[in-house]
Amino acid sequence: MILHRKGGRGTLDIIREKLAVLPDQPGCYLMKDQFGKVIYVGKAKVLKNRVRSYFSGSHDGKTQRLVANIADFEYIITSSEFEALLLEMNLIKKYDPKFNVMLKDDKTYPYLKITAEEQPRLLYTRKVKKDKGKYFGPFVNAYAAQETKKLLDRLYPLRKCDHMPNKVCLYYHIGQCLGPCVYDITKEQNKKMVDEIVKFLNGGFPEVREELTKKMLAASEELNFERAKELRDQIQHIDAVMQKQKMMTADMADKDVFGYHYDKGWMCVQVFFIRQGKLIERDVSLFPFYGEAAEDFLTFIGQFYLQKNHILPKEVILPHDVNGEMIKELLQVKVSQPKQRQKKEFVDLATKNAQNALKVKFALIERDEDRTIKAVENLGKQLNIPAPYRIEAFDNSNIHGTSPVSAMIVFEDGKPNKKEYRKYKIKTVTGPDDYASMKEVVRRRYSRILKENGQMPDLIIIDGGKGQIAAAQDVLENELNLFIPVGGLAKDEKHRTSQLLMGDPPVIMEMQRNSQEFYLLQRIQDEVHRFAISFHRQVRDKGMFRSSLDNIPGVGEKRKKLLLRKFGSIKKMKEATIEDFRAAGIPSGVAEEIIQALQKDPS
Questions:
Q1: How far apart are the first and last CA of the chain?
Q2: Does the keyword Ribosomal protein apply (predicted)?
C-alpha cells in the first residue's frame, strides 16, 4: 500500500477517516488499488463491521496481500441484504476484480436443446441461453450427450440443417429428416416428435427401449439381421447413455444439492446434479474468499445460476446454516434445507466431498506456493526490496541485425500472466544495437502505463548484463522519473541462467542455485526468451515471404497479404500449382509469373 502521496495526506489517514464514518447498514464495498482500479467487491449485513475488519486484527497471507493492495475504498448502501447480494453480483460482473476469483471458472457442461423454431431442431450445446428453447442436462459427459443425440436423430427425424436448403439433403434420404425444406411438415407432426423427445429425456426411455426390443425380435424372426443389428445398437446406446447410477432418490424431480466447506481462507463448493432421480454429475469449485463464508457461499450460488447460466432445477437443496430464504427470493425456485433423511444425506455427502477436496488443495497449494508466492517473497528479501508480486521481463531478439524485435512478459504472484504479454517491433534503431533497442522499448512501455494510469511492476528484469541494465535505468529515472528496481539476468557458457545483477553500478546478487527464488528467475528468463524468439521468427518469416514476392508483375501489397494468408510460407508456394493459386483468387497469368520467379529464388 502507498502510505503517502505527494502534496497530500497519507493514504492511511484517508482510509482511517472513512472507516470512522462507515454506516451500520447493509450494502456493498469496493476496494481499490493505488491506480483507482477496483480489485475486490464484497457485500455486508453491516458495512461498518465488515469493512473495518480488513484493517484490524491478523489475517492469513492471502488476505494480507489483498489488504496490502488497498489504497482506497467506496461503499454503496442498500435497503436489505438481498439487494446487497444482487448489487454485489452486478458489480463483480462489471469490474471483474482480480481478487474476486469465483467467476473465473468458465467450466461448461453438455446439454441437448430443442429449438423454439417453426421447424425445430435437436442440438448439442454447452451454452444455455434465454431463447425459449428446451434444454436437457447436464449430461454425464460429452460422449453421452452426443450418443443420445445420435439415437434421438434416428428415432425422431426433426430438421437438421441450420438454414433451409432448396432441396432435400442426405439426412432425408437416410430417414433422419422429414424434409421441411421441400415438403409441408405440420405443427402437429413437429409437436408429436418434440413431445416424444421430451418424454424420452425426462425418463420415458424404458418404454422406447421396450418398443425397440420388440422390433428387434420381429426383425430377427423375419431374418432381417441387418435391421435387427441396427435396432440392437440403438438399444445398447440407450443402456449406455441412460445408465443407472448407484445413488437414487425416491422421486424423479430434478434437484441440485449444494455442500460447502471452508478453511484457511479457501472455500470449496460441491454441487450434485440429480436428474430423473439419479446423481448424474457434480460440479467442484475451489476459490479464495475474503468475507464471511456463509455469505460468500450465497454469492456463489447466485453467480452459479444467474451468471454461469446453469439451468435451474425444480428444487435446490442447501445446508441448514445458510440463508435459504434469500436464495429462494433470488432464484424463484423451491429451496430445501433438510435436517434428516435422504436429502440431508446428500447435503452431508456434498459437504464431505468439499472438505476432502480442500485437503487435497492445501497439499497442492503448499507445494505450489513454495515455487510461486514464497519464492517471490524470498526474492524480495534477497534483493532487499518489497516482495515483487508483479515482475515484468524484457528480451531483445535479432539475427545479424535483421528484423529486430523485443518482447515483454509478466509474472504475477510467481506465475506467468499471458494476457499481459506484449510484443514490440523496434522502430527507431538501425542495426544491432541492444542498448538503444532496450531504451526504446522501456520508454514505450512505461510512458504508456503513465499515460493510461496502469499498473507498474514491482521489479523489472532485463535479459542481459550491465549495459542493458544501465540503458533501462537511464530511461526510467532520467526521462520518466520512475524508480523501479531493475535487475539483469546473465547466462553461462551453456546458455543457462547463472546470476542476477542489480544496483547502480550493478553487482552480482548472491543467491543459492538450488533455491526456489533462483528457479523462479530461471523460469522468467526462459519464458521471455521463448516469447521473444517466437515473435522474431514470425516477423522474420513474414519479411522473407514479402521480399521474395517483390518485383513480381501483378503482385502488390494486397496480393502479398492474400498469399501470406493462403500459403503461409515460400516453401508451400513453391510446391503449389496454378490451380492452387487460382483457388486463392490469383489470376492464371499472375500465378505463372509467381511460379517462374520462385523457381529462380534460391531461398
A1: 56
A2: no
In what helix (H) or strand (E) does residue 75 lie, and over which residues does it extend? strand 72-77
pTM of the predicted protein model: 0.56
| Residues 308-351 pLDDT 10s | 778 899 999 999 999 999 999 999 999 999 988 888 888 998 99
| Average pLDDT, 10 consecutive residues per value, the chain (603 residues) | 38 84 94 90 94 85 84 93 92 88 64 92 88 82 80 88 86 89 91 90 78 89 86 78 49 87 91 82 86 90 84 93 93 92 88 90 77 90 92 80 78 92 84 84 94 91 89 94 91 69 87 87 90 73 54 70 68 76 77 73 53
| Vertex 496: Cα angle to 492 and 497 (nearest 5) | 85
CB 350 within 8 A of CB 369: no
In total, the chain counts a number of residues equal to: 603
411 alpha-carbon distance from chain centroid? 17
Cα 3 from Cα 326, distance rounded (Å): 40
CB of 198 within 8 A of CB of 114?
A: yes
Quote the cell numbers at residue 450: 503513465
Long-range pairs, 570-574, Cβ under 8 A, ≥24: 570/544, 570/545, 570/598, 570/601, 570/603, 573/598, 574/598, 574/599
Tell me the DSSP string of 269-318.
EEEEEEETTEEEEEEEEEEE--S-HHHHHHHHHHHHHHTS-PPP-SEEE-
Buried b (16+ CB within 10 A) or exposed e, 487-524: bbbbeeeeeebebbbbeeebeebebeeeebbbebbebb
Query: Residue written as cell 472513512?
Result: 18
Q: How far apart are CA 255 and CA 276, in angstroms?
A: 9
373: left (phi over 0), alpha (psi -120 to 50) or beta: alpha
CA atoms within 13 A on the CB side of 305: 20
Q: State the pLDDT at residue 546.
A: 47
- Enumerate helices (H) and strands (E) in the chain, giving the number of each: 20, 19
* Among the listed residues 95, 81, 112, the one whose alpha carbon sits nearest the alpha carbon of residue 39: 95
What is the reported pLDDT for 4?
Answer: 32
- Cell 450460488 locates to 301
CA-atom Rg of the chain in angstroms: 32
Q: Are 498 and 490 in contact (CB under 8 A)?
A: yes
Omega before 506 cis (within 30°)? no
Element (DSSP H or E) covering residue 488? strand 486-491
Of 318, 326, 337, whose CA–CA distance to 84 is shortest?
A: 326
Alpha helices in 75-157 (DSSP H): 81-95, 142-155
